[in-house]
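ugh ok fine here u go
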Amino acid sequence: MKTLILCIVLTVLGSNFTFGQLIKPGDRPDTLVTDSGTFRALIRGKVTQGTYAMGEVMEHMNYMTSLHRHNTFDESIYVLSGYMTVHIQGKTHRLGAGSSIFIPKGTPHAQGNLDPEPVRFLFTMAPSAGFEGFMEGRAEVLKTTKPGTTEFMKKVMVLVPNLDLEVLGPSPVKR
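structure:
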């Protein structure tokens, strides 16, 4: 838990955050089903005036992002359960529950779940970058289009200009 708090503090350090949203343990933001698993927006960027956003993700096994970077926001990840595989700075790391990673803006990386069990993690983005809208769009595309197809990726990529996501190539991590 200390690591999670540190990640959040590092992400929002120096921000002008004002109290605007409280989520208690019994509160449940909508859970979206996406091609990679599930997503919940815990703290939306609009609540923090774009300073940061926080979400919870559960990724299925054999999901891996492409090698990509975000040029305008930092990303922090805290693993709640399972194992996440992260490729950053030319090395691949397997992160278990309680592990965290800070990915500075502009850093090429890929992440996913190569283990048989789902991985659950929290992430923050600073500034918020509209990631919630991107995930909501992916969930909508999934309702009408089969994941893993060219058509699915084409529809999802239309959403990318609204998010600072520069795809650099396939993931360097072998499945």
